[in-house]
Predict the 3D structure of the following.
Amino acid sequence: MADRSVNSSPIAQSDSGRRSAVSGLLTNPVTVKELRSRMRGRRAFAVLTLYLLILSGVITVVYLAYSGNVAGPGSSAARTAGKGLFAAVLAVQVFLVAFIGPTFTAGAISGERERQTFDLLRTTLLSAESFVLGKLISALSYVFLLVLVSIPLQSIAFLLGGLSLTELVISQLLILVAAVAYALYGLWCSAAMRTTLAATVTTFAGMLFVTFGTPLLAGMVTVLGTTFTIGRVINPLFEALALYGGLTAAATNLPATLILSESIFLSEDAIFGFTQSTATGTIWLFSPWPLFILFHLLAAVALYILIVRRVRRVSDV
Amino acid sequence: MAALIELQGITKRYGDLTAVEDLTLSIEEGAVFGFIGPNGAGKTTTMRILTTLLRPTSGQAWVAGHSVAADPKAVRRAIGYMPDFFGVYDDMKVWEYLDFFAACYDIPAATRKGMIDDLLALVDLGPKRDAYVETLSRGMKQRLCLARTLTHDPQVLILDEPASGLDPRARIEMRELLRALQGMGKTIFFSSHILSEVADICTQIGIIEHGRLVAAGSVAEMIGGLRAHRAVTVRLVPGAADVAEIALWLRGRPGVAAVAEPAEGEAHTLRLDFSGDDAALSALLAYIVGRGLPVVAFGEEHGDLEDVFMQVTQRAEAA
C-alpha cells in the first residue's frame, strides 16, 4: 500500500489515457478507502478461506451423492454429477448476491450517518455520484471476489462433462446483473433509512420477498388458475396471456430465471425462445433470462438515480 | 477589507422552534471570529447553514463571495469544516484518513504524500502517521480533524467547538494551532460556549442567545463601546485622610459619574465610574495630585470579555 512506485512507472503513465475510465473507478476515494480497511489483516483472508472450505464441503457432498454411479468422465452419470455440482455452486452464488452483497451496502450510507462521518464527506468536493459508485464498487468487489474464487471449484463440473459454455456464461451474466441490482437496492435502503439496523432489516426482508416470496405467490396463482380452468375450454388468448405472464413473472426472480432458462435450454435446446404447440395451436415462448437482465438493469439505473438524489439533498433538519 | 463570510437575515425554524432568527453578520478576511453562546443558542445551526449542509428557512449566506444556496460546490472548496461531533473510521491509519479526504478534494495522488507529512507536522502528529485513528486520544483526533480541514488549503475555517472535551493542555495546543492558522492568513469562524477560551485569540466576536445575535463586533469595540463608563480605582494611603471627604470632593469633578462606597476590608480604595476620555482622566489625576491627596495608586480597570458577555446577555434577558 505504501508502495506507490507502481503508479508512477513510465509504462503506466504512457497508457494512462486509455485506462482512464478503469482507473477512474479504481481511484475512487471511497473505493480505495473501503478496500484498504476491508482487505487489511487476516480477517479478509480468514473469511475467504472459510468460504472456500464450506463451498468445497458442499461440492464434496454433492459429488459423493452422485459418485456411486459415475463410470468415468463423459458418461451420462458423470454428466448428471457435473450438473449437480454446477447447480450447487450456482445456489451458493445466488445466496451471495441476494443476501451477502445487499447486506454490505445496507450499512454503507446509514453507517456513515451513524458514525457521524457523513457530514464531513458532504462538505468535501466528492460528488454524490462518486460517493454512491465508490460504495457500490467496494461492496461488489468483495462479492465478486467470492464469486471469482468459486470458479475453480465450479470448473470441476467441466471435468465431469455435461456443462456447456453457454450455460456457464448465461448463468454468470445473470449473477452479475443481479448482484449489481441487489446491491443497489441495499444501498437505497441505506440512503432512505435513518439507521443501519432498519436498512439491514428492510434489505433482508426485500431480498427474502424477491427471492422466495414471488415464486410462492406465482405458485398460488398457478394453483388457483388450474383449479379454475379444470374441465373448461381454455380461451387461447387467455392461455397465451397466462404463459407470457408467468414467464415475465419468472424474469423478476433470480432462481426461477436460472432454472427456467436452464430447462428451456436443455429440453428445447433454445437459448432465446422456442415454439410450443398447445391445445389450440402453436405459440412462441421466450427464455426469461434476457428479460431478467433488462428488468434488473432498468431497476439498477432507477435505484442509482434515486440514491444519488437522496445523497445530494440538502438537509432540512 | 472584503467580507469573507456574510449572513443576511438567516432564519431557521424547526416546526414551532426557532433555532436562528434573522441573523445578519459579516466577517472580514483574516479575522478570527469567536461565535459565543450557551449550548442550544443556534451556533451549530448557523455553521451547518454556512457549510451547505442545512437549508435555511429564509435569508441568504455567502462564503468567499459564493452563495451557499446557489453555488454550494464553490463554497465547499473555500471552507474547511470541523463539526462539534465527528466520527472516525475504524481500521484506518492516520495517513490514510488524510489521504482519503485529500482525494475527496480532488488533490492528485502525487502531491498528497508530501502534503500529508506537512499537515501532520503542523498539528504535531508526525510520529502517529501509521497509527490507527481509533487509538488516538480525543485531543489528537481533534487535531487530526483540524489537519483534515486544511487538506485543500481553504480560505475559511469553520470550526464548531474545536476545544470542547479537551483537557487544559490540549486546549492550549488547540489555541496555539488556531493562532498559527491565523498567521497563515486563514479566516477562522469558530464557536464556543466558554468565553475565556476565545477571549485572547479572537479579533471579532459575536454573541448569540436563543437564536438571536445580541452583539457583534471587534473585541476592542465590544469592550470599549459596550461599557459606557470606565472603572477607575484610586487607592489612598491607609489612615492618611478622611476617605468619605475625598469621595465627596471627587464626585464634583468633571467626568466622574459616581463614586462607589469603599468596600469592606479595603476602606482606603475608591472606585470611580468615569465617563470622560483619556485627557479628562489625566486632568482628574493632575487635580488629585495638585490637591496633595495621599494617593498610592491611580489606574483604570480593564474590563474583559466576561464582563461584556454578562452585560450583553443580561440586557438581552431583560429585553
Observations:
- The interface with chain B takes residues 4, 7-8, 27, 29, 32-33, 36-38, 40-41, 114-117, 119-126, 314-317 of chain A (CB under 8 Å).
- The radius of gyration of chain A is 23 Å.
- The longest helix of chain A spans residues 196-229.
- Strands of chain A lie at 273-278, 281-286.
